[in-house]
């Protein structure tokens, strides 16, 4: 029992390190470095890079980080956004553009307040940031549970990558100094981590492809995004995801002329 309690405490302590910062297809090493600097200013240390254009390690990033990459910011590399969020139970996508996906839209204040409550229960949280030129694409946004938008002058809404990371980091640090987190009813045992959700999506999409639902081909990407958005909004638990996978498997067996188990 004591060992279980210690494991639980270690999990919660790791989660309380703040949200992971996921940079999707960043273009310049300097921008990765300044983002890392902004992170460490406010105590964030989990930096994940997805397909960094200028590669890694990067001397320009090291220089621009002003020591942040040596003093505590940990960098991990991923080939896909799906892999970068696999261990996260809650993901926010930063974007200022209107999307054709229906998702909750939050400010940094409300998103961080929610994420701190989730972290306090042991869940892991991350924030997606897009590349400097065009931001996140719709496929990446579809993987998020909510959209995070910074209120800015609507006539000039452009924020560079490091500024966006700094604003989120500042709000996290401010709230950790001023208020206790509001712990939700859901715990890390309840929420489905990213890898379980992606596994379900890919399972469902394979079967929909085999049954001709995702047709015609030119409409498939938008259909997939919309289907994923439905389930992302639901905030599925791990047990619910496993139940849904069982439902899909049962329907496939029945359609193939086999009796359900």
From TrEMBL:
GO terms for molecular function: RNA binding; RNA methyltransferase activity. One of its GO terms (biological process) is tRNA nucleoside ribose methylation. It comes from the Bacteria. One of its GO terms (cellular component) is cytosol. PANTHER family: TRNA/RRNA METHYLTRANSFERASE (PTHR42786), TRNA_RRNA METHYLTRANSFERASE SPOU TYPE DOMAIN-CONTAINING PROTEIN (PTHR42786:SF7). Keywords: Methyltransferase, S-adenosyl-L-methionine, Transferase. The keyword S-adenosyl-L-methionine applies. Residues 20-170 form the tRNA/rRNA methyltransferase SpoU type domain. This is RNA methyltransferase. Pfam families: SpoU_methylase (PF00588). Belongs to the class IV-like SAM-binding methyltransferase superfamily. RNA methyltransferase TrmH family. InterPro entries: Alpha/beta_knot_MTases (IPR029028), RNA_MeTrfase_TrmJ/LasT (IPR004384), SpoU_MeTrfase (IPR001537), tRNA_m1G_MTases_N (IPR029026). SUPFAM superfamilies: alpha/beta knot.
């Amino acid at each position: 029992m004591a060992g279980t309690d210690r494991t639980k405490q270690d999990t919660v302590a790791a989660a309380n390190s703040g949200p992971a910062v996921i940079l999707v297809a960043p273009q310049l090493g300097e921008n990765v470095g300044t983002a890392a600097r902004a992170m460490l200013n406010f105590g964030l240390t989990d930096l994940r890079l997805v397909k960094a254009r200028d590669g890694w390690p990067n001397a320009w990033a090291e220089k621009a980080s002003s020591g942040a990459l040596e003093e505590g910011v940990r960098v991990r590399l991923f080939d896909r956004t799906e892999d970068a969020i696999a261990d996260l139970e809650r993901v926010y996508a930063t974007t200022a553009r209107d999307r054709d996906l229906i998702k909750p839209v939050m400010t940094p204040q409300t998103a961080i307040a929610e994420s701190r409550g989730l972290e306090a229960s042991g869940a892991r949280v991350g924030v997606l940031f897009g590349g400097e030129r065009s931001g996140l694409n719709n496929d990446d946004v579809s993987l998020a549970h909510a959209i995070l938008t910074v209120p800015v002058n609507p006539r000039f809404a452009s924020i560079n990558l490091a500024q966006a990371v700094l604003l989120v980091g500042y709000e996290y640090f401010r709230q950790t100094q001023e208020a206790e987190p509001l712990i939700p009813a859901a715990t890390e045992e309840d929420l489905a981590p990213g890898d379980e959700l992606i596994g379900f999506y890919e399972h469902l999409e394979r079967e929909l492809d085999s049954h001709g639902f995702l047709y015609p081909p030119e409409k498939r990407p938008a259909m997939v995004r919309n289907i994923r958005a439905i389930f992302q909004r639901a905030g599925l638990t791990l047990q619910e995801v496993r139940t849904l996978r069982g439902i899909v498997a049962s329907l496939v067996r029945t359609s193939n002329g086999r009796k359900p188990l």
